[in-house]
Design a protein that fits this description.
This protein has about 240 residues and is of the alpha/beta class. The protein has a single domain, classed as 3-Layer(aba) Sandwich (Rossmann fold), CATH 3.40.50. Helices cover about 35% and strands about 25% of the residues. It has six helices and nine strands; from the N terminus they run ααββαβαβαββαβββ. It has a seven-stranded mixed sheet. Strand 3, helix 4 and strand 4 form a beta-alpha-beta unit. Helix 1 packs across helix 2 and helix 1 packs across helix 3. The structure holds S-adenosyl-L-homocysteine (SAH). The site of S-adenosyl-L-homocysteine has 23 residues, from strand 2, helix 4 and strand 4.
Length: about 240
């Protein structure tokens, strides 16, 4: 009898502890969830991004887990952040804008140049069927691959290499997004775009480029239009 009373006491106590722990976890997650909601309404919707799939992906993707610990508290602010090795994670609005311009669909295979933290790839992974992403800095390629794996993004493949070469083994791509700035549009990337495909890239001189949308028409003709002035890190040339 005595034993049984003890048993039920302990069972009740452990239930209470479990409920308490879950509540703490939920409360602990709450500030980032609301920071993300605010980021999307104040920085992204307010500037005209309307694609509901893009907005949903930006609302649920834990951007703070893609940046180093020392800048984690700034993860949802309206600017780029350093992620080490001279690289930055783009401002949230720019990620949303480039994604909306690319217009990925579930049937699409997308190539990203400049994996960096892996955040843009994570957003694309939720909208496209498959994402291939190339990063020139080995340490960044490794850490982005680890973050994406740990967070369960299973349709994203990261490779260390020179983005100027594209990914010929996986080409053609329905969409190509370039997140470091080449001085000119790389011909090899345009060649790896499928007919009807679209490429979004910052193109131009160091610190001052145009965000450009390139469309390869069904007849193979390539059209290009500038969208807004932007400032990305220059794309490195592997030869240098
Ligand atoms: N998309 C990233 C941000 C990228 S910053 C994110 O969501 O975090 C630009 C990245 O491009 C840097 O990580 C830089 O190392 C990489 N990069 C620069 N030149 C490159 C090249 N030639 N090929 C592939 N990656 C390159």
């Amino acid at each position: 009898m005595q034993h049984r009373r003890h048993d039920s006491f302990f069972r009740l106590a452990s239930c209470l502890i479990l409920v308490l722990r879950m509540t703490t976890l939920l409360i602990a997650d709450d500030p980032v969830t609301s920071q993300r909601q605010r980021m999307v309404s104040a920085q992204i919707q307010s500037r005209g991004i309307r694609n509901p799939d893009v907005l949903r992906a930006m609302r649920i993707t834990p951007r703070h887990l893609f940046v180093p610990l020392d800048v984690r508290s700034f993860a949802y602010e309206d600017h780029p952040l350093p992620i080490g090795f001279g690289a930055t994670i783009s401002q949230p609005y720019i990620v949303a804008l480039m994604t909306e311009l690319l217009a990925p669909a579930k049937s699409h295979r997308v190539l990203e140049i400049g994996t960096g933290s892996g955040y843009q790839a994570a957003i694309l992974g939720q909208l496209a069927g498959a994402v291939y992403t190339i990063e020139i800095v080995p340490e960044l390629a490794q850490s982005a691959a680890r973050t994406l794996r740990e967070l369960g993004y299973s349709n994203i493949t990261v490779r260390q290499g020179d983005g100027y070469q594209g990914w010929p083994e996986q080409a053609p791509f329905d969409g190509i997004i370039v997140t470091a700035a080449p001085p000119e549009l790389p011909e090899k990337l345009i060649a790896q775009l499928s007919k009807g495909g679209r490429l979004v890239a910052p193109v131009g001189a160091i610190w001052s480029q145009d965000l450009v949308v390139v469309e390869k028409k069904l007849d193979g003709k390539v059209e290009r239009r500038p969208v807004i002035p932007v400032s990305f890190l220059p794309m490195k040339s592997a030869a240098k």
